[in-house]
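We give the entry.
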Amino acid sequence: MRQRDLDVQDVGQIAETGAVPAHRRIDEVTAAAHARALRHHEGAVADYIPILASADPEAFGVCVVDVDGGVHGIGDVGTRFSIQSISKAFVYALLCEALGHEEVLDVVGVNNTGLAFNSVVAIELNDGHPMNPMVNAGAIATTALLPGATAEDQWDAVLTGLSRFAGRALEVDDEVYRSEAATNHRNRAIAQLLESYGRIRVDPAEAVDVYTRQCALLVDARDLAVMGATLADGGVNPLTGERVVSAAVCRDTLAVLTASGLYERSGEWLFEIGLPGKSGVAGGLVTVAPGKVGIGTYAPRLDSAGNSVRGQIATAYLSRALGLNIFASDSHFPGGNLA
């Protein structure tokens, strides 16, 4: 979505590098972002996974959690939905924590493929390298690399790790899991192709099953905001005070999200909003302002790239009104004039 589509033409860009806005200001802007995006009805609910088609297209929640532990929510912030591809970011962080920067970079990679998130061609063009943990091939490889003697051990690492990010025990939506497991033929093919190139060394069917379960974890907009705020605060959950991953892992994860978090629209997203983010086809969207806040939104109407329409509009407003854009700056010279 371009700026004219994001409905932020009249929102002035504020540069507040290094500052967390006051709580009252966050409350006001969150409410304004929700009201502005609520008037949009573009997009369609995902239906390629049958159960997702039953989502209420008008559901909409926005939540901002700051690194001081403040929670600022409005709308349907408690409505639960499956995390879907947003899980990729946090499982990637868990893998980086377990294996380290260099090994994950070598095996999974960080470069945008320039092709669809479920592309098989991208694997073939890159000699079997998954290239990017935010597309399905890279995400399946990431899950397959998690420590554990069995697939159940790996699943326990995913469930425990993402629950720590959220600050509460998460659970799987069994209906979503069954619906995805019955239709994930392409992911199974991707896993087998990765195995043929030696990129995964576990049973490809088991790797896909763990990946499918992780995508079916139930979260709400508040959970996403807490998870984002944990990455924003150097790996410490601002509500529980628990360190989930290291600051170095947060840096690596946010770098990958900045480059590839919204698939083929990542460039436009970064140009307009200027923050690392990750979308999911159930309508979730998580965005991180490093050192400041995590933003979680839920609105199931998606654009043609599979990103939440209202979520993007609300996040664009928050970024501009709260001065969150990581590329925004003002001159430190009085008046900005060096002449």
Remarks:
- The domain at 3-84+217-321 is CATH 3.40.710.10 (Beta-lactamase).
- The two ends are 38 Å apart (CA to CA).
- Residues 113-130 have pLDDT under 50 and may be disordered.
- The longest strand covers residues 61-66.
